[in-house]
Amino acid sequence: MTPGPRTSSPPVALSIAGTDSGGGAGMTADVRAFAACGVHGAVAVTAVTVQNSLGVSGFHPIPPEVVADQVRTVAGDMGVDAAKTGMLATAEIIGAIAAVCDEVGIGSGGIPFVVDPVAASMHGSSLLADDALDAVRTQLLPRATLVTPNLDEIALLVDVKVVDDASAREAARALHALGAQAVLVKGGHLEAVSGRRQEDCVDLLSLASGEEHEFRSERLDRPHTHGGGDSLASSITAGLARGMSLVDAVALGKRYITRAVEDSYPLGAGHGPVSSLWAAPM
After folding, report:
1. Looking at the predicted structure, is the pLDDT value of residue 25 above 70?
2. Residues 166-190: what's their mean pLDDT?
């Protein structure tokens, strides 16, 4: 029996991020995770990158007013149930995003807003102008439902080097002080930063109220993890778009990224992407 057309619309999650011409990270990873986690993905392109599995060779920002218009147009027609940011490139783009998010009710206690403060690619290429870090601190973090920095981004934002549980909590407190309602300190890079073997990958969710939750998984030895940070943030965003509590949405994201890393695959001559293909029955 052939199924009929859907009569109801799925939740909508919006990715405000840059492209990845190699398809591994950025809004490509976001939309894959959105679909795998049961929501429709909409996009507002902030920058076009020139990259493949070996790295980023250039990026070209979109005019700030065009970025804002994309957000405004999507929100005004189909609505947005949750939104996330990725690569934002410049302070001017960040300012435009903050203004349009206020206009349409994203963040600041309204529509859930996940800020993934992407500063560099996994190969070390800068994806954020030098003067834009302060705009992230002052304009995005106070609006964020959740901020999901990696350990390098934490060091850039609040000058805390996370090497253990105590410094992870110190970093979370510093990010709360900048206005973030909740902080996810991700443990994926902890082994490399601390220089000590870590059997588990532990992510710490810290709420401004002082409540904490740990999400633990076995540390996987996989070389192909391109797009992992984007995919975690976007799967959490999908959970929030579906109406989950923040704790349940982070748990969904942890399950998704663990499976995505397990199923990562080689592609090109460099780092391959984490995978969502396991979620698509053949």
Report:
1. yes
2. 92
The residue whose two tokens read 């986690």 is 37
Using CA atoms, how far apart are residues 155 and 146, in angstroms rounded to an integer? 18
Q: Is pTM, for the whole model, over 0.90? A: yes
Classify the phi-psi angles of 203: left when phi > 0, otherwise alpha if psi is within -120 to 50, otherwise beta. Answer: beta
Alpha-carbon distances, residue 276 vs 18, 217, 258, 263 (angstroms): 19, 18, 11, 8
Select from 147, 93, 123 the least CA-distant residue to 22. 123
* Backbone phi, psi, residue 106, to 5°: -90, 130
So what's the pLDDT on residue 222?
Answer: 87
Average confidence (pLDDT) over 166-177: 96
Average of per-residue pLDDT across 193-212: 81
Say if residues 172 and 151 touch (Cβ distance below 8 Å). Answer: no
| The pLDDT of residue 201 | 85
If DSSP states are collapsed to H, E and C, what string results for the chain?
Answer: CCCCCCCCCCCEEEEEECCCCCCCCHHHHHHHHHHHCCCEEEEEECEEEEEECCEEEEEEECCHHHHHHHHHHHHHHCCCCEEEECCCECHHHHHHHHHHHHHHCECCCCECEEECCCCECCCCCECECCCHHHHHHHHHHHHCCEECCCHHHHHHHHCCCCCCHHHHHHHHHHHHHCCCCEEEECCCCHHHHHCCCCCEEEEEEEECCCCEEEEEEECCCCCCCECHHHHHHHHHHHHHHCCCCHHHHHHHHHHHHHHHHHCCCCCCCCCCECCCHHHCCC
The chain-wide mean pLDDT, for the chain, equals 91
Q: How far apart are CA 60 and CA 50, in angstroms?
A: 8
